[in-house]
Specification:
Blueprint (H helix, E strand, L loop, with lengths): L3 H8 L2 H31 L25 E2 L6 H4 L5 H4 L5 E2 L25
Helix pairs in contact: 1-2
Length: 122
């Protein structure tokens, strides 16, 4: 293996310094080329809206939030089938739409959540 270049760079001579400078210039040129290539590629991509710009409405109009109460799908017990079900046999976990679509409310006399009032005394 020829180590002349390494010896020249390590010796601190004018040739060694020239090798280091030329190597640095080559690396800098490659980095500048890579940045310019990235800028060109980025300009070719479709533009997305910026922070202050508003997106446009879809062709079919505004999309509204929908709330539904769901019922859980029944999972068969292992005793009924004789074996345990694997995850891919369970199917979708979404369940089905409930017949009763009223929102559940707290009962007047129940505890509610933490900090919901009350005397606080012991």
């Amino acid at each position: 293996m020829d180590t002349t270049w390494y010896e020249a760079a390590g010796a601190g001579s004018a040739a060694g310094i020239a090798v280091i400078v030329v190597g640095g210039l080559v690396i800098a040129a490659v980095l500048v080329w890579a940045v310019r290539l990235g800028i060109r590629v980025k300009q070719g991509e479709p533009r997305t809206p910026w922070g202050g710009e508003h997106p446009t409405l879809p062709e079919y109009g505004p999309v509204h939030e929908a709330r539904h109460r769901r019922e859980a799908a029944e999972v068969p017990r292992a005793e009924a089938t004789g074996r345990r079900l694997t995850p891919h046999e369970l199917g979708s976990s979404g369940g089905r739409r409930s017949e009763d679509q009223t929102r559940p409310r707290w009962d007047g006399g129940s505890s509610g959540s933490f900090g919901s009032g009350g005397s606080g005394g012991g």
